[in-house]
Amino acid sequence: MEVLLLKPKEFHPLDEKMRKSAELFDQAKKVIPGGVTANIKYIDPHPIVMEKAEGSKLYDVDQNEYIDYLLSYGALIHGHGHQSVYEAVMTQMQEAGTTIFGTPHKLETTMAEKLISLYPGMEMVRYTNSGLEATLLALRVAKAYTGKSKIAKFEGHYHGGYDQVLLSVNPDHEKAGETVKPNPVPESLGLPEYYQENTIILPFNDFPSTEKILRANSAQISAIIMEPVQGGFIPAEEEFMKSLRSLTEELGILLILDEVKTGFRLSLGGAQMVYGIEPDLTALGKVLGGGFPVGAIGGSKKIMEILAPDGGKDILTAGAENQHKHHALFHSGTYNGHPTVLAAGLATIELLENEDTMDDLFAKTKSLRDQLEELYSRYGISMQTIGLGSIFNIILAEGEIKNYRDMAKVDSSLRKEIDYELLKLGVYTKPLNRYSLSTAHTEKDIARTVEAHEQAIRTVQNCLK
């Protein structure tokens, strides 16, 4: 089955049932570059434009219903419009009489205390407005604390769409260099060479090679930033994580865990709780906001206090008396710690803390994974599901998948064809993307999903005959 590209002025819907989505996308392209407000929202030949959502379901502008496994890239762990989250938001706005104070408020401390109680590596917390901003701030803190200018990241890991980390996320293999010593490959136009020169790329789940690179560059590296589960579905090996933690402590390199994807999805205390390690800094986002934009970093008191503004220069007030004041690490944002967002986030966490909620969510995820693996096996397709907790991906390949390079053996063409058929059958995730489950997904949803996969496999196999 060939997926066609939209040419200018050409109408070609993904499916006739999605005609209005195609028309609205054509309209959007006239006023929005590429017709989307974020590159990840694009799907060939056009995105599906949504109009409503409830629980585990999405409804598009053509009134088609979908079981949602994208869940805003994993952010909606209780599905769409959970009543408790909705009520917390409305109560906060009604009682406060405003959406935002622009000053400190009690929920900032309440949420910080909650996160500190859950995440082993946290003693203090600062808020941002996205996971991207959280990783960006964590890197600034690391450089200020250590006095070293370079960072290291792993090949295949994504930490947001900004210059320093937009390297070697999904590089061409011919440009990526040796497996044991990857090259920094830019993933966007407009990236200054400075970042290639100051970002060291490491091979994931290969400790001997990682150790060799780190020892050779330790005097210059302020921090390693990493996803403990690459892309949300390729887990770090336990021994790799423990060895990396020991080595970074020995070399004086800070370890930053980007738990934007994994926070609350592997356990209430994220991946660090599962692996039994304490990073120097943690970045959170997604689930933390309960459907609103949010980010946070947390870490040890000795590191985090570098953010304290008291006694530091005031760079935003003209004429301020700054003589004899030191340069503080600057971090600001009008919407940091937004009360409405924190109310939604606290309600989300409280629901997860209810007895058996996380266990039930993980059991549903395992049930779907097991049924899909059995189904694909019956149809003679090499398939495995990879992931932890309530997130996983469908990998059409045999053998172990340990890192970015291993993904080269995956049959992504067949997976993509099946995913497009699933969209037509009412199962939604962006083609080739991971699956995230929510507490709103039901056994009926899972059964319907497995049935749709079987129908999609049959359709694709018939097309290939």
TrEMBL record:
Enzymatic reactions: (S)-4-amino-5-oxopentanoate = 5-aminolevulinate
Domain of life from the UniProt record: Bacteria
Keyword Isomerase on entry: yes
Catalytic activity, EC: 5.4.3.8
Full protein name: glutamate-1-semialdehyde 2,1-aminomutase
PROSITE patterns cross-referenced by the UniProt entry: AA_TRANSFER_CLASS_3
GO biological process: porphyrin-containing compound biosynthetic process
Gene Ontology MF terms in the entry: glutamate-1-semialdehyde 2,1-aminomutase activity; pyridoxal phosphate binding; transaminase activity
Entry keyword Chaperone: no
Cofactor: pyridoxal 5'-phosphate
Family of this protein: Belongs to the class-III pyridoxal-phosphate-dependent aminotransferase family. HemL subfamily.
NCBIfam families reported for this sequence: PRK00062.1
Source organism phylogeny: Bacteria, Bacillati, Bacillota, Bacilli, Bacillales
Alphabetic keyword roster: Aminotransferase, Cytoplasm, Isomerase, Porphyrin biosynthesis, Pyridoxal phosphate, Transferase
Top-tier EC class: isomerase
Pathway(s) served: Porphyrin-containing compound metabolism; protoporphyrin-IX biosynthesis; 5-aminolevulinate from L-glutamyl-tRNA(Glu): step 2/2
CDD domains, per the entry: OAT_like
